[in-house]
Amino acid sequence: MNKRIYQYALGACLLTGVGACTTQKELQLPDRKVTPVTTAPDADTITLASFDRIFQDQHLKNLIDSALLNNYDLLAATRRISAAQANLMMARNAWLPAVNLSVTAGADRFADYTMTGVGNFDTNKSPNINDDQRVGTDPTPEYFVGIRSSWEIDLWGKLKQQRHATMARFLATSEARRLLTTQVVAGITSLYYELLAMDNELAIIHRNIKLQETAVATVHIQKDAGRATELAVQQFTAQLLSTQALEYGVKQEIASIENQLNALMGRLPQHIERSPVSDVVDSTYQPPVIPSGIPANLLLNRPDIQRAELELSATKADVKAARAAFFPGLTISPYAGFNAFKAGLLFKSPASIAWGALGSITAPIFNKKQLKAQYNISTANAYTAFYEYQQTIVNGYQEVATALNKVENQQQAFSLKSKEVLVLQQAVSTANILFTTGYANYLEVITAQKSVLEAELALVNTRKGMYQGLVSLYRSLGGTP
Fold first, then answer.
1. What are the C-alpha distances in Å from 17 to residues 14, 326, 473?
2. Tally of domains in the chain
3. Torsion of CA 90, 92, 94, 95, to 10 degrees
4. Is the pTM of this model over 0.70?
5. Is 3 among the domain residues?
6. What is the pLDDT of residues 347-363, one digit of tens each?
């Protein structure tokens, strides 16, 4: 059967001209970049399951669940998947014949010097026909009720390649939603830990305000006793006012972060439930440990890499379909139904039953410039998709490596900052004792209090940076499958 089809196609090429059946060369893309593996196959490397043990805050999980249900970007992405699924349904059924119910009525006035006109004239006067067979009126009516069909035979796989391209783009749309889901989850998590950091900063400021209020009261007593000057009172008071002003800046940051979280969850501004503030300087706290290896298979499962690969596959199929368009196409157009030139005779079976079929092989001649342009566009898109795929792999690898370095460096910095805060807190106590006993001046006390405030705030930011590094690592590995 296939041999006979190719013989027919070859005959069509000879009939329509050899030039009409020329086609373009196959697509040849450069070699793909190989993703390096940084650890031995049996080494303990990063897994997405390890993040479930890190991000265990129930309030955070509730926020994520709410965002996955109500985030408007995710809802829109779901609708885009539905549209892609509808396109896939059309592509899957493109090879099937189109069958249409046809009901037509018309009239024709044939000239006297035409075959049909002369034939109708002779038929009306012929003694060999009955009254039902006489045409009678002029113009001549025409009635048809039946089925008409058109079926394009996919000789060269054009429809198959179009179906493959549509399937790849449908899957790419699903990967795009998975990428968006990962970004939403990472965004919620990052903002949540930033909100906790702001709560910690606020608690630190409140604690230092009380400490500085005590210092102001002490210096007033010492002034009344003649052991301190008005300048010392002014300096302590100015420091207290500066710290009190910091409180309102932090409160504004908290309100801004809460509003961002609410927007990601598709709701109006309201209070965000979260875990209570814990002491940032906790000797029992251990930063989470993340293995340093980057598994290549996990990296390649990133949704953006999967989407880029599917887009590349789709563009390859587009090129093959564009190549197939240069070859002749075979179309079969059958019909069957009731046909008559009198309405009363339309359903008089079997005399009014008509059927027929037309098969046609067509090859492009004058529209080959358009086909060649389409082929060039498809080829350019394929190269573009290939380079984007390669760049996505490079970007993914550097994102993972950067996130790993950030987590490791923030862990080291957190350890040192924790020790610094402990030392400075002891320095404040020492400075207060020395000041009350006359062995230190007020500037040393102010300096000690200022230093511990800055160090505690820096420690909060360091721990926040460590968790944000973990969030970046989670996002760069593609998030939850």
1. 5, 13, 61
2. 2
3. -170
4. no
5. no
6. 777 878 888 877 777 77
